[in-house]
Design goal:
- With 250 residues, the chain is of the alpha/beta class.
- The protein has helices at 19-30, 42-51, 66-80, 103-131, 153-173, 194-197, 200-208, 218-229; strands spanning 10-13, 34-39, 56-60, 85-88, 134-139, 178-185, 240-243.
- The protein contains 8 helices and 7 strands, in the order βαβαβαβαβαβαααβ.
- Strands 3-2-1-4-5-6-7 form a 7-stranded parallel β-sheet, with helices on both faces.
- Strand 4 (85-88), helix 4 (103-131) and strand 5 (134-139) form a beta-alpha-beta unit.
- The protein starts with 9 loop residues before the first strand and ends in a 7-residue tail after the last strand.
- The relative contact order is 0.15.
C-alpha cells in the first residue's frame, strides 16, 4: 500500500487556519513533517498548530505582503534551519460584478491569491536552491480553467494566473531540483463556500455537473498534495491537476 513518509522535512502551509489549508497541514504532520502553520489570523494559526500530530508552530502574517513573507520565512529558518516543502494555499474569493468591483477588491484578491505565491516561491526557492531540492504546491482552482463562474472575475483571473505561474516556476526551478505543481480543486465544503451551499438551486446545478454526484471535502485534496510532496512524484512538475469529482475532464 502506498504511504508517504515526510519525516525530517519542514513544510510551510499558507492559509492553514481553516479549510483546505488546515487539512493539508494535518496531513503533512501525520506523514511526519514539521509544519510551519501560516494564517493571517494569529488565533486560527495557533489553534491549527496546537492540534497537529507532530512538531508544528504558528507563523501569523499576511502573505500578500512581500515584507511579511520575508519575515515569516526568516523566522521559519531561524526556528528549523531548513524549508523543504511550500504549500501556497492562502486565498480569498470576493463576489462582485466587474462593473461594481472596487479597486481594493481586485487588488486584494490578486495580492493574496497570486502575488503571495510569487513572494513565497521566490523566498523559499532561494533556500531550496542551496539544498538542491524542494517541493512547491500551489492550490489553484478549476476556476482557473475555462469554467464559468459569475461575479468572481478577480478570483478567476488570480487562479488562472496561478496556474500560469506554476508552469513558469516549474520551468525555472527544475534546474535546482525543485518541483512545482498546482492542485485545482472543484467546489469543496469549506467556510469559503458555505453561503453558496445554502442556495439549493445553485447546489442542484453544481451536483448535476459533477459525475461523482457530490461536493468535495478538504480531505479529498490532501491525498494528492501529499503524493506531490513525496518522492513517488519525483518526475512530476509543471502540472495543474484537477480534484473535482470529474467536473473538468480534459
Amino acid at each position: 500500500m502506498f504511504s508517504v513518509n515526510l519525516a525530517g522535512k519542514v513544510a510551510l502551509v499558507t492559509g492553514a487556519g481553516r479549510g483546505i489549508g488546515k487539512a493539508i497541514a494535518q496531513g503533512l504532520a501525520d506523514c511526519g513533517a514539521t509544519v510551519a502553520v501560516n494564517d493571517i489570523d494569529p488565533q486560527t494559526a495557533t489553534l491549527t498548530a496546537s492540534i497537529l500530530s507532530g512538531e508544528a508552530q504558528a507563523y501569523a502574517g499576511d502573505v500578500g505582503s512581500a515584507a511579511e513573507v520575508e519575515r515569516i520565512i526568516d523566522k521559519v529558518m531561524d526556528d528549523w534551519e531548513q524549508l523543504d516543502i511550500l504549500i501556497n494555499n492562502a486565498g480569498i474569493e470576493p463576489h462582485s460584478s466587474i462593473l461594481e468591483m472596487t479597486d481594493e477588491q481586485w487588488q486584494s484578491t490578486i495580492n493574496v491569491n497570486l502575488s503571495a505565491a510569487f513572494y513565497t516561491s521566490r523566498a523559499a526557492g532561494r533556500i531550496m536552491r542551496e539544498r538542491g531540492q524542494g517541493v512547491i504546491v500551489n492550490i489553484a482552482s478549476i476556476a482557473g480553467h475555462n469554467i464559468p463562474l459569475r461575479n468572481r472575475a478577480s478570483y478567476v483571473a488570480s487562479k488562472a494566473g496561478l496556474i500560469g505561474f506554476t508552469r513558469e516556476c516549474a520551468r525555472e526551478f527544475a534546474a535546482y531540483g525543485i518541483r512545482v505543481n498546482a492542485v485545482c480543486p472543484g467546489v469543496i465544503e469549506t467556510e469559503m463556500t458555505q453561503h453558496l451551499r445554502q442556495n439549493t438551486e445553485q447546489m442542484a446545478k453544481w451536483l448535476a455537473d459533477i459525475p461523482q454526484g457530490r461536493l468535495g471535502l478538504p480531505e479529498d485534496v490532501v491525498g494528492l498534495v501529499l503524493f506531490l510532496c513525496s518522492d513517488a512524484a519525483r518526475y512530476l512538475t509543471g502540472q495543474a491537476i484537477n480534484v473535482d469529482g470529474g467536473k473538468v475532464m480534459l
